[in-house]
Amino acid sequence: MTSERPEYPSAPDDPTEQMPTSGDRARAVGRGLGSSAKATGRGMRGVARVTGRASRFTVRQAQRAASAQGAEQSGLARLIYLHSANAAGDAAVAISLATTVFFAGATSDARGQVALFLGLTMLPFAIVAPLIGPFLDRFSHGRRWAIGATFAIRAFLCWVLAGAVADDSALLYPAALGVLVASKAYGVTRAAAVPRLLPEGFTLVKANGRVSLAGMVGAAISAPIAGLAASVGSEWALRYAFLVFIIGTIAAIRLPEKVDSSAGEQQISLRSEDGGQRRGTQIPPAVAFALRANCGPRWLSGFLILFLAFLLREHPIDGWEDKPELLVGLVIGAAGAGNGLAVVLAAMAKKVNPAVTVVVMLVLDAAMVILGALFYSLITLVALGLVAGLAQSLAKLSLDATIQDGVPRHIQASAFARSDTTVQLAWVIGGFVGIAMPLNPRLGLSVAGIVLVAWTVFVLGSKPRGGRAAPAAPVGPAP
């Protein structure tokens, strides 16, 4: 009887064959990681290719939209690209300053600090209207350089601001104020350049809408880049803005030469024929009417932003007690959506009557505020924000078109500066009323509705009769 012996693993036939060592295992792991890295790399390259294609497609579509309907031939497309760069730079500056103490008062619950902030917002307009507007009017043969100067000044001040933010320097406030002033000066010069680049068959409202739409696209593209830079440090967003404004300076100088042309411009005497006394340059009553009508939507915008910001934090709508910030964000977001909708409508509309549009927007605002007072709820507040944003933007686009069409070109810079001052003053007054109003939603909205109805009656009573009247109203804030 044979006994079974246990079997043992046989030794390898080749005496050099050894069991796997730790080095062998490490190399195997390395080869696996290398394969995974290659696969990941291929995946990332694939995503990058898809993203790149999507980005190139978006750029091509934007270029096609900017150049459509003769805008490329007339030179309007260049101004559209320039305005996109302007909005991109301004967005970067706003994001940087939002993380500093410069705008801290705008979100504080202390109403006195908010009132101080409102006063500061008027300073750029106070400088633009009486000083920069007439100065820019003298650049009748150098407007491209004037527009380029607004970019170059902002580029320099952004570099100074970056150092001031990093070092907590006292130059922060003067440099920030200078950037705001230069930004407003750009808006004045840009608006005066649009009529010179208008394609055949284009309305001024449509051209203004297309330019504004480009600004929204530029800001939307720039904001994430500036936000990423600001996450490293607020000064880096300003350095990014510096580069954008340098590019804008070059693009402004390369605008078509007809931006500087004064062919076909009217000349108005600044002296009376008899006594030789200096008198003010005059504009058509239609412009003053459009300016008065704009004050209503702009007043409501300032009122709603400040009134609802405090109201919805102190007395949120039922069910939103734990999320007041989200509630405020919904209303402000609706206003932003209304603003974007207005720009799209203006850019796509084939024919818009500015005189009718400003009245319709004023009446629509008044009706919506009254509706919000009667049926106060989240839905009506969001609808009110949407209508307020739509009305403010469409009314302003119509005002710009009225000035471009009705004011002699050699004084349009002054007219735009004064009109911007007037509508900004209306916004600030609305904000002050919103701060002072008791935090009662129905009372506050009812008062706003009464103010808008009264202003609508006043505006309609001052409407010029007949066609385009002879110049009679002085350039300046509407009464």
What features would you describe in this structure?
The protein has 479 residues and is an all-alpha fold. The chain has 2 domains: 72-259, MFS general substrate transporter like domains (Growth Hormone, Chain: A); 282-464, Growth Hormone, Chain: A. It has helices at 22-67, 71-74, 76-98, 111-137, 143-167, 172-193, 204-232, 234-253, 285-314, 324-348, 354-374, 378-406, 412-436, 441-461; strands spanning 282-283, 473-474. Strands 1-2 form a two-stranded antiparallel ribbon. α7 (204-232) packs antiparallel against α10 (324-348) and α11 (354-374) runs antiparallel to α12. It is globular. The N and C termini lie far apart (126 Å). The relative contact order is 0.12. Residues 1-19, 102-110, 264-281 and 467-479 have low confidence and may be disordered.
